[in-house]
Amino acid sequence: MKSSIYTRAVAVLASAALLAVSACSAGSSTSSGSSPGGDQNLSIGLVAEPASLDFTTTDGAAIPQALLGNVYETLVKQDDSGKIVPSLAKSWTVSPDRKTYTFDLVDNAKFTNDSQFTADDAVFSINRVKTAWTTSLKAAMDVVTQAKALSPTQLQVTLARPSNDWLFRMTTRVGAMFSQRGDAALATSPLGTGPFKFSKWNRGDSIVMVRNDSYWGSKPFFQQITLKYFKDATALNNALLTGTINVISTVQAPEALSQFTSNDKYQVIEGTTNGEVLLSFNNSLPLFKDIRTRQAIRMAIDHKALLDTCWAGRGKLIGSMVPPTDPWYEDLTGVAPYDLAKAKSLLQASGAAGKTLRLRLPTLPYATSCGQVVKSQLEQAGLKVRIDQLEFPAAWLTTVFKNADYDLSIIAHVEPRDLGAVFGNPKYYTRYDDPTLQGYLAAADSGDEAAQVDNLKKAARRLSEQAAGDWLFLLPNLMVADKDIKGLPTNAITENFDLSKLAR
Amino acid sequence: MILRLIERTGVFLVSLAVSSVLVFAFMAVLPGDPARVALGVNASDEAVAELRRQFGLDRPLPTQYFDWLGGLLHGDLGTSYVSKAAIGPQVFDRLQVTLWLVVAGMVIALAIAVPAGTLMAARHRKVSGLALSAVSQVGVAVPAFLAGILLIVVFAVKLGWLPANGWTPPAQDPAMFLQQLILPALALGLVQGAVLTRYVRSAVLDVLREDYLRTARAKGLRPFQALWKHGLRNAAVPVVTVLGLQLATLLIGAVVVERVFVIPGLGSLLLDGVSNRDLLLVQDVVMVLVLAVLLVNFLVDVLYVALDPRLRTA
Question: Which end of chain B is more exposed for a tag (fewer CB within 10 A), N or C?
Fold first, then answer.
């Protein structure tokens, strides 16, 4: 008797639970279609949520990824092949001494606070970089001596010296155009001339943008786009599989791709990025002063096997600090091919054999998985490697980046055209001081287009031959989306995610 | 009884004060500079120093501590270093989300533990009791995040019954809110329920062996009546203790479950804060969690007195 009461109670509870589950499943079946929120709405899954919406005072790739080109626009922008093309500037001319740029601006662009975009706004925005920006990127504007509005649609910028890099930086967030009325709270409600208006930021979850119906250019297809942020790679995949989102912007675990490639509901896009995964050497250490040690490390690494093991074979082997979308790209993987015997003998000759190196890794997926492979390959060549994991970003930035307290590290340098930034400045954490390289970089910046390409090719080759670091591979652009989404970029080479081209 | 309450309140306040010092001290020694994280990889030392000054990080530590404490006492949690938004409303929003999870998880845990634990105790020598005991043992061994992942795979990805992740406030869409709450609450509740079942079982077993229960049976009460009238209240004292401890575990478990289910609760706010070195925000969130745990312990102490009249004279 006593047991039957309990049995009954448990049975009642169990059936109540079952009922609850089935009742809810009935409700969800209507909403879990392939298009959350209807055909005019799109939901994109991304990995890093911005810490703030103000890229003038907070660094981090997530802010321009969401806002640049969508909310804010620049005078010039990069097209898919890496070429600089018009945006808010219809055209521009460069003076013969290459120091004066004159931009003709579009006359029908408007900020979403209803004020007209004019050359005065451009002057305001350029000057603002020098006065109000605090992130290190502001240095890109140091070369500007004067910005002047010749008329409401004509802007003249004078540089202290010729600089190809300056025009390129104008395609990035540094070139973003702000309203001089200054009524935007940059950190919480950004405001620009772009095809989308910032609508809402649900912190910890998503950013919502709506179409700017008074946009001066061709209007985007989607009425509303939600950028949804996921810290967990599996959660991101599940969200697409269950129809919560339509696009995975970056596949975080390439080994999990098969669940999408085998399903014809989805399309998988694979292209290149600007993310060179660099095995960096602390070139200020006596050990690395000897070029034989550096070359030995490069030759001890079997890059193909490494890529297969730690990133499921996705990505591209590059051999220097240039991605294939830059005009000065050359395949330099042959400069230091895998040769274990030679690596061993070079290490013997330089006296580095048997030494212990600290490989200080940031806690990032590619670094932790590739770090193990690097360790085992270097140990085969006769080095000892000790791995330290450093929390990213904070601990890694302080220890490796600021204090250069490391021997080897692994990090993807995702900034566009960053060869000069990473190896041209002896104070940078790579501590690479090479006057020959610096000469090439200076000549590339001040010369014409042909001279730029020629000198940067020389610079990339010099880096590879001098073994200033080892380029493990180039991160792939891996996206998965519902089959019917059009306009997704094959290559992710700019710092923004262009939402205006997307359609269904 | 009044004396006991005053004593417990005193302990509560002292613990709170000591933890505030500890939390602040931990943040001060954490490696990584908030200003450098905000300014990014290439920032100059001058720019970092300037931002440290703006954040007020260049002031002596005691000044920073008392400013922070003073703000807290006035209900002002300060402004985030990174997002430049007031911290108070953020913490309040996220706390609501986490509380839903914790409460729902606790309800599920209790709904499982009380009947199952009592049943296991009542039938502890029978096969059904042993079988239940084995199931609960497995439940104890499964971490909440793994339970979450398994639930997602089965109910969201394979069966498509419930959403895999996300969060909708109840005021915005109650149906969606419930659908999204079920799996994370189950992930938390099933595991906690299994743990709690073990405690309920042993508490009821202890009670079943007491003389007063045999006396009650001898008076002619049926076993269930005897347990209901004389046993459960006695069994509740140790269970409430564990429940108090478990609420703290649930809060921490929610941090992990929030990540698996992409729920913007206190846990994800804390993790983001740590990774951005938004130290003031981290300090505030940790203090809120400490306060919640201490408050629960305090309430448990008070509840003892209500449950057990013997303590009222002590």
Answer: C
